[in-house]
Design brief:
single chain; alpha+beta; Structural Genomics Hypothetical 15.5 Kd Protein In mrcA-pckA Intergenic Region, Chain A; OB fold (Dihydrolipoamide Acetyltransferase, E2P); SH3 type barrels; 17% helix
Length: 267
């Protein structure tokens, strides 16, 4: 089996240039499925901490690069949405977050925030013995008693401690919830769910999301509509205030440009 991946065929989530070299490293087995980005790509192409695979292996041998609290020794280990990447010697901590176009980006966080990870509940089902298994967006899961699991529904998000696997916080998927889009044309956008549109039959449910300010509260402006599966519930601690303000400015500029085009057409 080849250890390489053609750049032109990598998933859209991979933050790599597609028209430079022909090949890049192939993701190894692990969480996140096809969307998982090899750790080497993060170290080399995103952060620029290493120049090649040999340097990456040396860095990982020092046990100072952690993913979700665990030292990583495999440079092909897949990294994906909401993973926590820590560089203990540097004192640097990052959360993997959606960017424009569905690409994965790194958002700088503090050491306390790096102690836990967000998991979206994709589904839940009973297992032999009476317990309930929660299956998360990255392919991992959690086993709870039926009584404990009853508190959590599909689409909810759980903040889980990296050290002990305990549930630190619970964000309910509902109208009014703060969400970020992780896929589709609105990937990286943040807002509050205004309406959940339930589609009869097997069609996808949609959500209408209203824009928010840096504090997470609704503001005037254009929101967006997207597929329910494309959004993940977060809280205000996940908001990059600078990014929200920049997005608002871009939206305002786009609106002004549209108005100018309309006015010009009336002449």
């Amino acid at each position: 089996m080849t250890k390489h991946q053609k750049r032109l065929s990598v998933p859209k989530s991979w933050p790599v240039e597609r028209k430079t070299d022909t090949f890049t490293v192939k993701a190894g087995a692990g969480p996140h499925g096809e969307a998982g980005v090899p750790l080497l790509v993060v170290l080399r192409d995103v952060l620029g901490y290493v120049d090649d695979r040999k340097e990456a292996r040396y860095a990982l041998d020092q046990d100072t690069v952690l993913v979700n609290g665990d030292p990583v020794s495999d440079e092909t280990r897949p990294i994906g949405m909401f993973d926590i990447v820590a560089f203990t010697e540097r004192g640097e901590y990052f959360r993997v977050f959606p960017d424009e176009g569905g690409r994965l980006a790194l958002s700088s966080i503090d050491e306390d925030a790096a102690g836990s990870k967000l998991n979206k509940i994709e589904d839940k089902h009973h297992v032999p013995g009476g317990d309930v298994q929660l299956n998360f967006h990255d392919g991992t899961n959690m086993l709870l008693s039926a009584e404990e699991a009853a508190e959590y529904g599909t689409g909810d998000s759980l903040i889980v401690g990296n050290d002990d696997g305990s549930i630190v916080a619970h964000f309910t998927y509902e109208e009014g919830a703060l969400v970020t889009a992780v896929s589709g044309q609105h990937a990286g956008d943040i807002g509050r769910i205004e309406t959940i549109q339930v589609t009869p039959g097997s069609g996808d449910n949609n959500v209408i999301v209203e824009p928010v300010g840096p504090d997470g509260e609704p503001v005037e402006g254009d929101g967006f509509e997207t597929v329910e599966d494309y959004v993940v519930v977060i809280d205000e601690n996940f908001i990059d205030a600078d990014a929200v303000e920049e997005a608002a400015e871009d939206a305002a500029e786009a609106a002004d440009t549209a108005d100018e085009v309309v006015e010009g057409g009336d002449d």
